[in-house]
Amino acid sequence: MPIKIGMVSLGCAKNQVDAEMLLFTLRQAGYQIVNEASLADVAIVNTCGFIEQAKQESIDEILELAELKKEGKLKAIIVTGCLAQRYKDEVMRELYEVDAVVGIGDNANIAETVRDVLNGKKKTAFPDKLCLPLEGGRLQSTPFYYAYLKISEGCDNCCSYCAIPLIRGRFRSREIEKLLDEAKRLAENGVKELIIIAQDTTRYGEDIYGKPSLDRLLKELVKIDGIKWIRLLYCYPDRITDDLLDTIAENDKILNYIDIPIQHCSESVLKAMNRTGDRKWLESLIKKIREKIPGVVLRTTLMTGFPGESEDDFEELSDFVDSVRFERLGCFAYSQEEGTAAALMENQIDEAVKLRRQDIIMEQQQGIMYDYCQGLKGKTVEVLVEGFDRYAECYFGRSAADAPDVDGKIFFTSDGRAPREGELVRVRIEDCLACDPIGIMEQ
């Protein structure tokens, strides 16, 4: 009977792609992949180590699996991913139930690691993080109709609060030809929505083509049969070019949805973050984007409580949110991460102040989202069907305005045929429940 492998993958979609490649490697080596780590012989935790909350989630997951191991329901636990890479020996020392801790540079050797732990060997391995494979097969873990396409690895931006360059290494792009090959395989497997990800998608190609080349990549991706939607995440504001905006505006497959994590609008805070711009510059950029791409949905991420953020800085941010009215917005309290420049800064903000400011921003955004939802009434939108909610007795899915996991859903009924999962249908919005549109599928 083959050894059963189960994986828990935590954190971002970029980490999820790594997990899919690990699972493919293991299946090719003859292991049986199971959906529940608790039903496996060997459990792999592909961890996140970005901020304190994510680190704690990773540790809690390992401890939960450790209990199963004590009960004899698991033979071994392997820890991979960002927490493993960042804390190396500490994970094995503090969590003695763990059998192997391997860094991202050792991902290609995952089958060997499984063999080692099954033979009773404790293992740590941390090759150069640049050894992380960028190419290879994937065992898709998302629903069949959408998938992430990771176009680069690492980051050179060195924002003062961020540990990603320490964990993942320098920025390195993948070649367009290899990305197209992967996208074609995904389309052949039924993927309709391709979600472009990287730590900074707008830097794509600088290192191998000599200039930002995301627009060039997109012009090739739209030619792939089967792909209906292409969604852009993680676009840095200072690299959003006119060429990129024109490419989005001119191609129907590229959704009018751009994720632009700006973090703040105060010039002094942005400077301390080692980021460029100020409120006036950001407002000018957003105005240009909305003029070039009518109806565009803009998502952003903000941070409250960065060291030295004054009440005036926060008031400016709050006013900016009310003024710009992002269609989608997430806000996080600053996390003091060891090894980053910001962790050593003076004027660290009290935790309660960070969280209060975060709550204020999110409360503002709830009102903006409510107004946006109300504005959809009477309109017809295209929806990617995701399933049927048997409790609410209606179907649900996402529109072009909704990225998986971070945005909302559209709920709808059908007076005629039952739509299939992964199908694109047209839904007329009739009402809203809080910030969730409710409608009827057009026949």
Report what the structure shows.
The protein has helices at residues 13-28, 52-70, 81-87, 89-94, 110-118, 164-168, 176-188, 206-209, 214-221, 242-250, 267-272, 279-292, 311-324, 351-374, and strands at residues 4-9, 32-34, 42-47, 76-80, 100-102, 123-125, 146-150, 152-153, 172-173, 193-197, 229-232, 254-259, 297-304, 328-333, 380-389, 394-399, 410-413, 424-433, 436-441. It is α/β, with parallel strands linked by helices and 443 residues long. It has 3 domains: 4-131, Rossmann fold (3-Layer(aba) Sandwich); 146-374, Alpha-Beta Horseshoe (pyruvate-formate lyase- activating enzyme), CATH 3.80.30.20; 380-441, OB fold (Dihydrolipoamide Acetyltransferase, E2P). Helix 9 (214-221) packs parallel to helix 10 (242-250) and helix 13 packs parallel to helix 14 (351-374). The chain is globular and about 60 Å long. The chain starts with a strand and ends with a strand.
List the helices and strands and how they pair.
Layout: E1 4-9, H1 13-28, E2 32-34, E3 42-47, H2 52-70, E4 76-80, H3 81-87, H4 89-94, E5 100-102, H5 110-118, E6 123-125, E7 146-150, E8 152-153, H6 164-168, E9 172-173, H7 176-188, E10 193-197, H8 206-209, H9 214-221, E11 229-232, H10 242-250, E12 254-259, H11 267-272, H12 279-292, E13 297-304, H13 311-324, E14 328-333, H14 351-374, E15 380-389, E16 394-399, E17 410-413, E18 424-433, E19 436-441
Helix pairs in contact: 9-10, 13-14
